[in-house]
Amino acid sequence: MMKNFDIMGKDLALVERRAVQVHGAAYAAFLAAVELFGGLLPQSEAKNFQEFVYAKCGASEEEAEQGVNVTRFWMQLLSAVRRGVFGETAPELQRFFKAHGTPMDHPPDAAAKDGSGNYIQGSWTSYVFYIELHAVLDTLKKDAAQRRETVALEYEDLKEQMSRRPYYSAKNLRTGVNGDFGGPKQRFGGGKPVRCIAIEVDKMEELGYRPVPDEVLLASKVKRKAPELPGAAFPTDPSWDDPRKGDLFTLIEMVDDTGEK
Amino acid sequence: MALARKLAQLVNPIGGKLKGILGLGVLDLAEQYRKTRGWYYTMKPMSDATTARWLKRMETERAKVEEDRNEDLIWFCDLRLKGIPTPVGNFRLNCFYTLVRADGKRDSVVEIVTDQGERSGRVRLDAESFSVASGRTGFRTWLKNHANAGWKGGDVVLQELQLDILHDSAFMDVQEVTAIGYDVNSKIWFMGDCAYAGDEELLADEDGVYWHNGMGYLLAETGSQSQPFLQVLPLMHPGQMLEEEKPGAGGEACWRLAEAKGAKAEPTKGALSAEETAENALFAEMAARLKEALGGYDAFLVIGAVASFFGRPEFFRMEKCFPGLFLHGETKQGKSTTMQWAMELPGFQQMSEGLGLGRDSTPVGLQIGLEQFSSLPFWLSDYNAAVSEDKQEIIHGAFNARTTGKYAADGVLRKKRTMFVIDGESRPVKTSTRFRYLQVLISKRNMASNQVWWFERNRRFFFRWAGGYCGGGKSSRN
Q1: Given A26, A52, A64, which is nearest B435 (Cβ)?
Q2: Which residues of chain B neighbour A153 with C-beta distances below 8 Å?
Q3: Contacts of residue B321 in chain A, CB cutoff 8 Å?
Q4: Nearest CA of chain A to the CA of B143: how many Å?
Q5: Cβ distance of B307 and A49 shorter than 8 Å
Q6: What is the spatial distance between Cα B257 and Cα B253, in angstroms, rounded to a whole number?
Q7: Contacts of B307 in chain A (CB under 8 A)
Q8: Considering only alpha carbons, which residue of chain A is nearest residue B286?
Q9: Between vectors from CA A148 to CA A147 and to CA A151, what angle results, nearest 5°?
Q10: Which of B114, B127, B169, B280 could make a disulfide contact with A38, Cβ separation 3.0–4.6 Å?
Q11: For A21, nearest residue in chain B (alpha carbons)
């Protein structure tokens, strides 16, 4: 059994060890049983089974990542935003969140140009998303209590876990006058400036900026006409869903204060 | 009784060698010995004057010339000098062996036979019960609790009885085993009806003791701290062999058990015996049909997850952890049924459900399960979001056999020797707990074909596979 497990461990060296252990024990034991009981698996079946287990192992790692506390926080946050927990209008939401965009010629790592010398993916706005974490957590906890759920992390733990992520802005690392947490200050809801957390949306995988190849972006812009209707392909739909924008952009675009400055 | 009879013969009017000799009291002594029948007795010493009188009589007889000397009288005087037989207990103890308990204490395993012929069966005589004649843990209390027997001797006589028992127990140590499955110390797999030491299948003797390399092992009737086993014991049915039945009217391949007659025929080198062929075919059929039932390769993983328990000792040694199995999905989708089939593989036969995670179990109950079964799956049923945090912690910690930091009155912390297999409608909310278990979604929507009839017909034979994995009786395979 351990021989089979070692082979799988080498094959999946880059996958999180826990996922390999959990799937590898069963996989290796089944192969050992097959050896013991006369090798019932044809080569093709064995190959398919291996691919199935390796894929399941990888999916498990991904699901585990989704379940990591800081990831759960973002999921809970977006769910609460959708349910109107933080308010429905931009001014209501801006009591908790702000976003400030910087126009860029092109998205990160998408500098290819077409024959006319234009960037294929066009211009892009790089956002810094500010979140008043204390107020957000208080509101989330209240909402969770009503739903008999819990918010996994307290402020310090959440900030600590976020600080290990690439999207955690360097602005957050500034030290205050007294050597305590400095970080950026923003006015939320028109009040006095308060300390908050700055998130670099371009470095936030999945929920923030999602890099896509040029051809995928172009394909997404062209919507084919329904075959039962006459005529050729029609232009890009105004309700086009930009594949580069993760779920957080819905919120970002509502609390964008770029034009206000 | 032999002494009483001999004494009576000595004063028999016909030929008795001591008949007519006055002042001996032969029949009185015979009656006193007769009264000790079936009893423990002690010899009550005589007074100094009486002893001197009997010594003088014996010396006088010895001094006579050989033709006049009465040897029977000398023998009687010698017997008289030993004292008066005085009964102290209306029973006899038959000693079988010393049981070395899991906590290191040593019990004598004895049988009490009363003067009326009643037998207690094998009972344990622990050191505390032997320590004093009286008191709440004294010998008299122990006796009364196990037989219609009493003790009217004192501590000194009791010490002599203890020495007798210890003498009879020499070189008869038997190690008590309180966990079903793999025993770390002996490296033997103890199942409900046999044991496996490497390739060797061990059968218990008439006392229920397994002997291996000169050491005896007794599988306890309960787990540690006298807790009844929380799961049925796995059965391997030694002495029986698997046979493939001819397909019936429906063309379904089925199996049956038959008595193994005599020694197994040695298969030709490189060829499989008939039994091995039947076992291979059953395993292949079972794996293929479970794949149909679950609708994919998850079936192989379910088999592998249960099979992996037999590799847990080595896996845990290398990885310092061991994953469990979690079958989840909506109600009435076949989670419990699949788990019932899976539990047949290590020999847990005809289980209908595991230990419930509702109010009928406690966190301690879960810990007891982890201690009672060693490298064998322990089944928990009906996981849901309402499972208490205490239980969730145990389900979480079983992965790496995390020890508890709780006070134990006897100083012995519960061991975690195995891992859970769980079925439930929901999975643990805590991500780190969830990913300590191999998760398989059971859904009828995935099912390729219904295999319930075949599994219910053949599930009771799946255990044949476990013996092969333990190594028992399958040396040719290994």
Answers
A1: A64
A2: none
A3: 21
A4: 51
A5: no
A6: 14
A7: 26, 29-30, 32-33
A8: A40
A9: 90
A10: B280
A11: B323
Of chain B, the percentage scoring pLDDT greater than 90 comes to: 49
How confident is the model over B44-74, as pLDDT tens digits?
899 999 999 999 999 999 999 988 889 999 9
The alpha-carbon gap from B305 to the nearest alpha carbon of chain A, in Å, equals: 4
Instruction: Give all domains of chain B, ordered by start, each with its CATH number.
Output: 2-87 (no CATH), 90-168 (no CATH), 240-257+270-470 (3.40.50)
What residues pair up with B245 in beta bridges, in sequence order?
B254
What's the whole-model pTM score?
0.71
- Of the candidates B149, B80, B141, which has an alpha carbon nearest to the alpha carbon of residue B113? B149
**B179: pLDDT strictly greater than 90:** yes
Nearest to B287 among A21, A26, A40 (CB): A40
Taking the C-alpha atoms of residue B102 and residue B224, their distance in angstroms, rounded to an integer, is 7
A162 pLDDT above the threshold of 50:
yes
**What is residue B351's predicted lDDT score, i.e. its pLDDT?**
94
Q: With a CB-CB cutoff of 8 Å, which residues 220-239 of chain A face chain B?
A: none
Q: Considering Cα of B126, then B131, then B134, then B139, what sign does the dihedral take?
A: positive
- Strands A197-200 and B91-100 turn out to be unpaired
The pLDDT assigned to A235 comes to 38
Answer yes or no: is the ipTM higher than 0.85.
Answer: no
Is B348 within 8 Å of B234 (Cβ atoms)?
A: yes
pLDDT of residue A227: 47
- The C-alpha of B477 sits at a distance from chain A's nearest C-alpha, in angstroms, of 7
Could you give the percent of chain A with pLDDT greater than 90? 39
Chain B nearest-CA distance from A109, in A, is 34
CA distances from A178 to A133, A168, B213 (A): 21, 22, 73
Q: Which residues of B touch A30 (CB under 8 A)?
A: 300-301, 303-304, 307
Residues of A in contact with B276 (CB under 8 A): 38
Beta strands at B324-328 and B420-424: parallel, antiparallel or unpaired: parallel
pLDDT band at A43 (very low <50, low <70, confident <90, very high): confident
Whole-angstrom CA distances from B452 to A142, A172, B240, B408, B458 are: 48, 60, 25, 46, 10
pLDDT in tens, B95-144: 999 999 888 889 999 999 999 999 999 999 998 888 887 776 789 999 99
Segment A50-77, tens digit of pLDDT: 999 998 888 887 777 666 677 888 888 9
CA distance A194 to chain B (A): 33
Q: Where are the domains of chain A?
A: 2-67, 69-200+253-260
B438 membership: H or E segment, kind and range: strand B437-441
